[in-house]
Specification:
- The protein has 122 residues and is of the alpha/beta class.
- It folds into two domains: 59 residues, 2,3-Dihydroxybiphenyl 1,2-Dioxygenase, domain 1, CATH 3.10.180.10; 55 residues, 2-Layer Sandwich (Signal recognition particle alu RNA binding heterodimer, srp9/1), CATH 3.30.720.
- The chain starts with a strand and ends in a 6-residue tail after the last strand.
């Protein structure tokens, strides 16, 4: 997945903490993060979890994303995870989720929205 942004290093650092990923590759205008170090064998065997690539772009975010990430915590409640993400630099946004929601919709440090939902934690 590729994300256009103004500061690839900043967003990669944020998302590495959120997703427990590591930086796989970086250049001046691009940072790729993932949960694994790709090998030829794994790619050929189609055992390759996705990576996220942050690429520097000059334009501003113009409207709602048509694609977004869902963060599903496994060791804490949805609200506890949202609190953790807010402490890392996410912001709360209103996307019309209403008062009886089972999910929350924060945005990353550059305003790209994502959801926190489906936690099996009590």
């Amino acid at each position: 997945m590729v994300v256009g942004c103004h500061d690839p290093e900043r967003l990669a650092a944020f998302w590495c903490v959120v997703l427990y990923f590591e930086v796989l590759e970086r250049t001046e205008d691009k940072v790729e993060i993932g949960s694994w170090e790709p090998t030829v064998e794994a790619v050929r065997a189609r055992r390759t979890p996705p990576t996220v690539v942050f690429i520097r772009v000059p334009e501003e975010k113009a409207r709602k994303n048509r694609l977004h990430l869902d963060v599903s915590p496994v060791d804490r409640t949805t609200e506890a995870e949202a609190t953790r993400l807010l402490s890392l630099g996410a912001t709360r946004v209103d996307v019309g989720q209403g008062p009886n929601r089972t999910w929350t919709a924060p945005a990353d440090p550059e305003g790209t929205g994502f959801c926190v939902l489906r936690s099996p934690a009590p």
